[in-house]
């Protein structure tokens, strides 16, 4: 079971996704440079968070032109599981792999904090190991996470059960107060028609060890591993930092 | 070279005195060209030369068994075990942040990050220490909102978490905010890279953003007071490009792994001038460059402008002969273009050419060793004697403890800073073990069992009232904070923010503060491995409170044994370590209720402080301490409340009253700010163990309460004085800043 984590020049959660898959979950993982043209035989592709090309233009607007995106598109078209986290989600929108667009957070501020999201659907490669309706406590860190799509698109997403994660209260209620950025229908993550490409604003890779505040994000990785038939082998207890075979650098 | 006439007005524009100009003539043996004069003016500016402060800074302790790099390089470094080094420094960006808050603060973050990765370290944590005027002033709110957004904009984009910091408020900062940014990185202890040029014929490379006219004379600006014309200096503030810096960071770290590099330095203050001459000077070599080869953003730039530009995100590298193409290829990978602009020479001179014609030719030593050194006159400030007098009886009957408690929780100084740190990405890199607002920032060191606790602190009111003791208290507080988390303080960096050193009273404050800081660091065995001095922090003749900020790095041996500020379990026993005295001097209470900065700061026994800190580190390592929180602004009552916030646990405490006139006993007991006190919680079955450990090291420890319930209850000597709902108190504390800024947006 192998993860490919795409590295755009301004990615900054690439090593976190790599660390979660490799060091916490004990899977094979490789960082793939955005100018390359190979996904190195990976079973799952992650587009990580960050500011791919500085994002002075719309977030992700330039990243979709990176050479690797042709391979990501082909991989997705062939049914391969693709996960876009935060900036990765924004890139999937710009690349047309997912519908809709991002606006600035309604409060106009960047927000970094733990939020609660509900797993709405479990028939995707990234939620299969979760319970339907399960509430996860996972951090967000973004300035443009206010998901927007035309009403008819949102209607279609709802009808086709393509809304995968929603911002909720700790007890699972969909309320406006639980929505950190003003996204339409409290959307935190969606999938495509074929249900193999998932994008979400929260950071599951930051929630894989209790030592850093939450291990609720593990279920996202675990789902992918189960789906590919990989063997889950953790190199470290999720509750502890001890024994983690770390990497000083990328 | 045809020298232009150097008139008094030319000198004034360069911030040089007649005497300093004479010195230039002496060391040069001829009249300098205008380009050379510009080079001297920035290298001899206060900001670059430390001409007023150096004689005092020399007295600070800078060595220790863990110190790998002391002052003099881009940053300091200490050994943290496992063959690794923590590389860290704090730096100010005060003046630019007043003129243009967003960019001023953003480029401050960019500058300190470059200092860290220049040493070969990957930056993993940022902290900041900020000072603003009163938030009732719309100008201040605008400044603070801009500074916070600027720090967020840069740090978030580059992907380095901002894990902690502190913010203080005082009217003296209204038109001169302080923005001090601390950065820490990790490198292999044996792979620290220096800013050195050596080996004649080795190529000198320029890489990064193109050079523009922005920031010319930034260093000189940072060395002058502000007045009405300061707004006109806006072109001297640079604009940051965090994406460019991210590329530089990754590319430089990749180049450093190749061993093709001799040395590297960022172009910060004084830009190309400073990097060229400092690298040559450190390596005992010369550097010759041709400005025509420097990538330029604008047309028609003169050598003078190119040498003095402070455009951001630029680096200077010296590459081993024969390895050039290897280095160029790495930069190309990151879409950066490394340009060869010169080479290393043997003659210890900085030689600048423009299309082959020499436009500046100066011995390195003239710019560095020969820079003026001032032992500026000092005099004890006239305000001190009066300000140290505090007559409580003149203040009348105090408000009720309940009113004081609630108002202090709603004071911006004490209130939760969530509105601020929520704008900072504080979790990227997945190392943040203790989140902002929960005590010292703590980051684990991946690949090891260890973690680092980081804190930046200074109570400027204490320094104002007694610079010597105030600076000691700053060191004690910062190191106590990391000790509370379980970290043994192993190194420090300082950022000394003062007003105009040409005023003898300010120079006296500075000298006494440095003495106090040195004495405290020696006693607590915390070497200062570098830092920054920011003088001339005054606007229209009004100086800021003397603010010597100190950042302390603490080493936690076991990242699983980290302690935070909050109570953990109902039924745990609350213990006060240390002793409360009748000390209201310089307190938040006096400031909030009486508008006074008055009295003498709390006393400090450094030996007892050291015992307290060692006890905290051992107690954390032994797993006996459940939570630990320092008593600072707002005293014991606020500290106890803060232990409850962000949990749903209340507290019921009964504390011994201090000896003072009856009318003020409750105020002094609950809200006095005596030093060396920490509130810890312990599970009931380990209380005896903790108390006997404390007794063994002669540390006063008293059981004062129990964790639990949904109220904050406090008694003094058995007499109930406070009984507040936890939810009500927490609401005040957690919404204060947000309320200020949402209101300000409504007005804007």
Task: Note down, in words, how this protein is organized.
The complex is a heterodimer of chains A (250) and B (748). With 250 residues, chain A is α/β, with parallel strands linked by helices. Chain A has one domain: Class I glutamine amidotransferase (GATase) domain (Rossmann fold, 3-Layer(aba) Sandwich). In chain A, 20% of the residues lie in helices and 23% in strands. Chain A is globular, with a radius of gyration of 16 Å. Chain B is of the alpha+beta class and 748 residues long. Chain B is 35% helix and 23% strand. In chain B, the strands form five sheets. A seven-stranded mixed β-sheet of chain B has the order 8-10-7-11-9-12-13, with helices on both faces. In chain B, helix 8 links the parallel strand 4 and strand 5 (162-169). In chain B, helix 8 (138-158) packs parallel to helix 10. Chain B is globular, with a radius of gyration of 26 Å. The mean pLDDT of chain B is 94. The chains are: A alpha/beta (250), B alpha+beta (748). Chain A binds chain B through residues 9-13, 15-16, 19-20, 23, 33, 35, 49-51, 53-56, 109-113, 139, 141, 143, 203, 205-206, 208-209, 211-213, 240-242, 244-249, and chain B through 84, 122, 149, 152-153, 156-159, 186, 188, 241-244, 246-247, 250, 253, 333-335, 421-433, 435, 444-449, 451, 558-560.
């Amino acid at each position: 079971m192998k993860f490919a984590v795409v590295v755009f020049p301004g990615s900054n959660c690439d090593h976190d996704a790599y660390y979660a898959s490799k060091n916490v979950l004990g899977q094979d993982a490789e960082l793939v440079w955005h100018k390359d043209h190979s996904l190195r035989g990976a079973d799952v592709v992650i587009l990580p968070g960050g500011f791919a090309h500085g994002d002075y233009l719309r977030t992700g607007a330039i990243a979709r032109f990176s050479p690797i995106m042709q391979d990501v598109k082909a991989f997705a078209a062939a049914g391969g599981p693709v996960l876009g986290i935060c900036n990765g989600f924004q890139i999937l929108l710009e690349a047309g792999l997912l519908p809709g667009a991002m606006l600035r957070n309604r409060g106009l501020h960047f927000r970094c904090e733990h939020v609660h999201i509900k797993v709405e659907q479990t028939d995707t490669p990234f939620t299969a190991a979760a319970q339907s309706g399960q509430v996860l406590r996972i951090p967000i860190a973004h300035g443009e996470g206010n998901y927007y799509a035309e009403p008819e698109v949102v209607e279609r997403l709802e009808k086709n059960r393509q809304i995968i994660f929603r911002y909720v209260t700790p007890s699972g209620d969909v309320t406006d107060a639980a929505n950190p950025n003003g996204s339409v229908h409290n959307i935190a993550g969606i999938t495509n028609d074929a249900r193999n490409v998932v994008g979400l604003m929260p950071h599951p890779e930051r929630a894989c060890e209790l030592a850093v505040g939450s291990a609720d994000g593990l279920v996202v990785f675990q789902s992918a591993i189960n789906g590919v038939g990989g063997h889950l082998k953790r190199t470290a207890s999720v509750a502890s930092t001890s024994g983690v075979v770390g990497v000083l650098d990328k | 070279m045809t020298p232009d006439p150097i008139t008094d007005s030319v000198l004034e524009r360069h911030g040089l005195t007649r005497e300093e100009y004479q010195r230039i003539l002496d060391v040069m043996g001829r009249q300098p060209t205008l380009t050379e004069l510009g080079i001297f003016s920035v290298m001899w500016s206060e900001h670059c030369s430390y001409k007023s402060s150096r004689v005092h800074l020399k007295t600070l302790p800078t060595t220790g068994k863990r110190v790998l790099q002391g002052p003099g390089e881009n940053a300091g470094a200490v050994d943290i075990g496992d063959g690794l080094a923590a590389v860290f420094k704090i730096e100010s960006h005060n003046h630019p942040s007043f003129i243009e808050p967003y960019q001023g603060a953003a480029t401050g973050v960019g500058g300190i990050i470059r200092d860290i990765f220049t040493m070969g370290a990957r930056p993993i944590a940022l902290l900041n220490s900020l000072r603003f005027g009163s938030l009732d002033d719309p100008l201040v709110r605008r400044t603070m909102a801009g500074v916070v957004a600027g720090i967020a904009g840069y740090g978030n984009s580059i992907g380095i978490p901002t894990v902690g910091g502190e913010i203080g408020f005082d009217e003296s900062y209204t038109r001169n905010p302080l923005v001090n940014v601390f950065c820490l990185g990790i490198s292999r202890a044996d792979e620290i890279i220096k800013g050195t040029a050596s080996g004649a014929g080795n190529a000198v490379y320029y890489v990064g953003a193109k050079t523009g006219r922005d920031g010319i004379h930034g260093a000189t600006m940072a060395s002058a007071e502000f007045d009405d014309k300061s707004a006109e200096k806006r072109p001297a503030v640079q604009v940051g490009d965090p994406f460019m810096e991210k590329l530089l960071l990754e590319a430089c770290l990749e180049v450093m792994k190749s061993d093709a590099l001799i040395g590297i330095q960022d172009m910060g203050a004084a830009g190309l001038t400073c990097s060229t001459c400092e690298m040559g000077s450190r390596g005992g070599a010369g550097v010759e460059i041709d400005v025509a080869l420097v990538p330029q953003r604008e047309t028609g730039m003169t050598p003078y402008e190119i040498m003095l530009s402070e455009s951001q995100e630029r680096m200077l590298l010296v590459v081993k002969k024969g390895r050039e193409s290897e280095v160029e290829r790495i930069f190309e990978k990151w879409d950066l273009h490394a340009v060869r602009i010169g080479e290393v020479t043997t003659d210890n001179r900085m030689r600048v050419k423009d299309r082959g014609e020499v436009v500046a030719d100066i011995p390195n030593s003239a710019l560095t060793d020969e820079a003026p050194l001032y032992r500026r006159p000092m005099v004890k400030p006239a305000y001190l004697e009066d300000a140290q007098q505090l007559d409580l009886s003149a203040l009348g009957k105090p408000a009720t403890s309940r009113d004081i408690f609630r108002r202090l929780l709603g004071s911006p100084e004490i209130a939760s800073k969530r509105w601020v740190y929520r704008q900072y990405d504080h979790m990227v890199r997945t190392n943040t073990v203790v989140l902002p607002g929960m005590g010292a920032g703590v980051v684990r060191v991946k690949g090891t069992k260890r973690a680092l606790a980081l804190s930046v602190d200074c109570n400027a009111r204490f320094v104002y009232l007694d610079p010597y003791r105030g600076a000691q208290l700053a060191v004690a507080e910062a190191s106590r904070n990391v000790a509370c988390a379980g970290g043994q303080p192993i190194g420090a960096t300082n950022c000394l923010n003062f007003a105009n050193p040409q005023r003898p009273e300010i120079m006296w404050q500075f000298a006494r503060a440095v003495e106090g800081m040195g004495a405290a660091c020696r006693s607590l065995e915390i070497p200062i491995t570098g830092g920054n001095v920011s003088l001339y922090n005054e606007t229209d003749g009004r100086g800021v409170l003397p603010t010597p900020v100190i950042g302390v790095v603490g080493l936690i041996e076991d990242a699983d044994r980290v302690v935070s500020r909050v109570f953990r379990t109902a039924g745990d026993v609350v213990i006060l370590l240390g002793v409360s005295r009748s000390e209201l001097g310089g307190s938040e209470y006096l400031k909030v209720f009486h508008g006074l900065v008055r009295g003498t700061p709390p006393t400090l026994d450094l030996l007892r402080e050291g015992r307290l800190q060692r006890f905290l580190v051992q107690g954390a390592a032994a797993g006996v301490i459940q939570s630990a929180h320092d008593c600072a602004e707002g005293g014991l009552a606020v500290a106890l409340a803060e232990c409850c916030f962000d949990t749903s646990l209340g507290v019921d405490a009964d504390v011994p009253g201090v000896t003072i006139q009856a009318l003020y006993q409750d105020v002094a007991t609950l809200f006095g700010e005596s030093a060396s006190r920490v509130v810890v919680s312990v599970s009931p079955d380990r209380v005896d163990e903790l108390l006997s450990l404390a007794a063994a090291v002669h540390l006063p420890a008293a059981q004062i309460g129990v964790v639990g319930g949904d109220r904050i209850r406090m008694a003094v000597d058995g007499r109930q004085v406070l009984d507040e709902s936890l939810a009500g108190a927490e609401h005040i504390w957690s919404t204060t800043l947000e309320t200020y800024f949402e209101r300000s947006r409504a007005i804007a």
